């Protein structure tokens, strides 16, 4: 599947802004972000398994370089040189302008709202003040990107993720933004589908690990 490259760029821009990273740059038919983390120095993102992705895989890269593409994992796997490892599958998803109404916060929790790197960050705290769940959304040039939605293991299956999606949706709705994007894990995909999101494309990842 050939994913619309500008759409992929809008997702990646929101992802970068949510984490305080440099904005993606067009390179060879895809994008590159200079991440600069110890465990991820750089990430390349492509919309298909075509010449641009193949050329990228043929070049020499530093360890902890990531390559992501809107293709099935098996397609990316076939292009991987020795030393590259396939990560868990993920899915690029979008949602309509009108989603289901929010749900109440379960008893025993409070919500904390902050702004980090321009993203609206919502955290659910338990009775001890520890973070039980969190998520963030970036609004940029008509696109909302939901990112880093996670619930701690001890607090799962209590509706916290659903609650957070509702509070983040309220931020998006108030801004009048129609395009919503996120990348879901295999475990998170069913939740988003129940909330009205749909899969646009698979989103596969490979990482170059240091030689042992």
From TrEMBL:
InterPro entries recorded: Acyl_CoA_acyltransferase (IPR016181), GNAT_dom (IPR000182)
Pfam families for the chain: Acetyltransf_1
UniProt keyword annotations, A-Z: Transferase
Domain N-acetyltransferase: 69-212
GO function terms (MF aspect): acyltransferase activity, transferring groups other than amino-acyl groups
PROSITE patterns assigned: GNAT
Domain of life assignment: Bacteria
Full protein name: GNAT family N-acetyltransferase
């Amino acid at each position: 599947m050939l994913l619309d490259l500008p759409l992929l760029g809008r997702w990646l821009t929101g992802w970068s802004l949510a984490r305080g990273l440099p904005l993606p740059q067009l390179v060879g038919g895809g994008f590159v972000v200079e991440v600069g983390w110890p465990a991820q120095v750089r990430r390349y993102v492509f919309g298909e398994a075509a010449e641009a992705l193949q050329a990228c895989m043929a070049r020499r890269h530093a360890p902890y370089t990531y390559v992501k593409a809107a293709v099935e994992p098996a397609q990316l796997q076939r292009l991987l040189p020795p030393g590259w490892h396939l990560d868990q599958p993920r899915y690029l998803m979008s949602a309509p302008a009108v989603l289901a109404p929010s749900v109440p916060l379960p008893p025993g929790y409070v919500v904390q709202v902050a702004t980090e790197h321009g993203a609206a960050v919502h955290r659910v705290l338990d009775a001890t003040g520890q973070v039980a769940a969190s998520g963030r959304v970036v609004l940029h040039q008509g696109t909302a990107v939901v990112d880093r939605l996670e619930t701690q293991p001890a607090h799962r299956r209590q509706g916290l993720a659903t609650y957070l999606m509702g509070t983040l949706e309220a931020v998006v709705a108030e801004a009048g933004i129609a395009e919503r994007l996120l990348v879901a894990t295999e475990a998170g995909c069913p939740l988003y589908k129940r909330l009205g999101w749909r899969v646009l494309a698979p989103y596969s990842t490979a990482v170059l690990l240091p030689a042992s």
